[in-house]
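Q: Structure tokens for this one, please.
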Amino acid sequence: MAAKKNVVWLDGKIIDAEKAKVPILTHSLQYGSGIFEGIRSYHTDSGAAVFRLGDHVKRFFATAKIYGMDLGLTQEQMASAILKTVKASGFKECYIRPFAFYNDSRIGMSTEGKRISVFVGTQEMGSYLQKKGAGVRCKISSWRRINSEILPVEAKASGNYLNSIIANGEAKRLGFDEAILLSSNGYVAEGPGENIFIVKDGNLVTPGKGSDILLGITRDSLIKVAESIGIKTDERMVHKEEIYTADELFFAGTAAEMTPISEVDGIRIGDGSGRITKLLWNKFSDIIHGRDKQFEDWLTPV
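A: Here is the predicted structure, written as tokens:
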């Protein structure tokens, strides 16, 4: 792969990142009207490969449809743009951020007639949350997870994440690493940018679609991976106290990958062995790095 370059894809062209400029009054900066995806590319023996590219692009277009945005691209063209950007960056492994936004500086909330730009950027990223040798400490947030009566929770839209930012900020101020949000009816929903899994009696429990969660692609991957090694997953409403009595607990997401949770609200989770979490991570790590033939179709070579 080529030497590392600070490049991005913007409206059909690979350009130097510092040349990717928009007006300060851009609609999506003022009102949070952008949409995005988070994807990872991993190093394999055959070179860089993007994890579940087609599924991420499909969700990106679903978000655009929910918000009435015509991206002016096909899903195939979007996937090609992502692969071109990763290749041009020269990164062995990277986080990929596709982003569509209203590139229009006219003040006013209406998006009618406003120009839409599509962007792809890459960034080197190691562990997003995990502390070396320890899980993260979490706080159940006083803020509740948004629901579809307020905003479409299945869309990855910029404005949705103000909910996440305020919950994460509260947790940090109180000395914790991350927040856990409850749904409006008091059941466990997710982290600010991660789905959550409980390990109980050798199997998994995770909040289901009715818990106002984003249906994460890493979440879906881990359910399938667990099934492949004989671990069942119960997708359902989860009571808050089930977190405290879990044998193991972990976050799952593109950035977070699999991040163990060692403590919630000052309560130690399990005995700290993390046996099932480690088993799943080892299997998942083999998959994303191209060492597992069973799930090799999840990787798209760059």
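A few notes: The chain has two domains: 7-123, 136-288. The two ends are 10 Å apart (CA to CA).
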